[in-house]
Design brief:
This is SnoaL-like domain-containing protein. The protein is α+β, with helices and mostly antiparallel strands and 453 residues long. The protein is 24% helix and 42% strand.
Length: 453
Amino acid sequence: MTNDVQQIKKLMNEYAWALDLCDWESLSRCFADPMEFHSSTMESCYDFPSLKAAVQARAPLFALRRHMISNQYVRIDGDRGYFYGNLINSRELALPQPDDLFLAGGYYRNQMVRTPDGWKIAVKCWQDLWTEGTLPAAMTASAPQFAPVMHGIDEGSTFGVPDEQASDPASSPRQAVSDAVLRLFRAADADDRDAVSVTLADADRILWPGAGSGNAVDALCAGGAKRMTYLTNELIRINPDGAEFASYFYQVTGGTDGSENRHTGGFLAVSLTQDKKGWRIRSLHYEQIWEKGKPLCDDPRDGTQLAARFLAPFSVADNAPASDEERIAELHAMYTWCFDAGDFALMESCFTEDVQCNFESGMGKRFDRRSMIDQLAIDRDLKPFYQHYTFNTLVSVEGDRAELNCYAFTRRTPDGGGPVLCAGGRYRATAVRQGEGWAFSHFHYQRDYGPYQ
């Protein structure tokens, strides 16, 4: 059973999938009537036919598009909802060279409305913050600039609704833990020192590059730079003493004086404590593992060992209340962590014994868990470092069976080491209920583009 927050997040994931697949009928069902669409890179639209026409005019320029949304943050106010999300838009260009990859990043800030047919997008706003690559000339003509839609927390509030009032009473404990971490990085990217301080229960337990005694807030904040942080592949455990949170971490910092944007990534671990104000950060540990265009600084296998260390607290089952959709999404996140950490013993719990899998990236088909995991271990051993960021996870549950779809954005080193490359694809999986949990019985990965440097 999903709540309002989960329904809105699912709607935004459905929006991204429909947009990328040019499924206009499904896309139209995501919007209310009337609706508004505002963008820093397109003309504003005030009905769906005009939005469809604008998107169709640009579609032939790209062989492939992937709107990947992370840091999804939702607040409910009666029949109104407010959605915030960070976006990486990866596009493989159709012209002039079909193998060129263009990346853009920014954020959504949307107003949602409850209708008899469920939640719909009433006002959709997009603000881009960074780009990588060169767009076709047809898209470089000047476009009206929509005023910046959002940059962090606006005057101490969340989308015009004060934080202490903007809560969904049906929101799950896991969502509350995740939201606490997202609030921290949304405020840090916006350089909002006061908002960052509010999220911290103990600023002396922040293990962050540049953080020392008494300056954790300064280290966490963007320091005036244009910056976007993306958290994916969340793992959450709630216990009587607090909560543990781990995620993959991807950050883009804008270049200055004409320099290129800086892409970095690694692993994040957060411990939280709960008080009268809600969940707050008790300790935080971040380890940067890679930087775009550069070899890993140390032995690439150090990244694998670090992933295993961050994964270790989550090897025990989670007994906190969670919906089936949440458990299945985390099951897939657990698979990615296990693969990237090289923990194939723990990975076994993610699959049924007779799982059927197909990895179109080269591994091919396997028809049982043992042969699948043995082959994954061989493939993993060839690459010194892997990190599978996943986005837009859609889960549909019917009885004791569920379907999962999500995007993958992979950072890895080539065979034998070298600069970090990126590639992208899609997962499709079927999960079946096994006792109190779930396991994948069918598992499919399709690589759509890359690898690119």
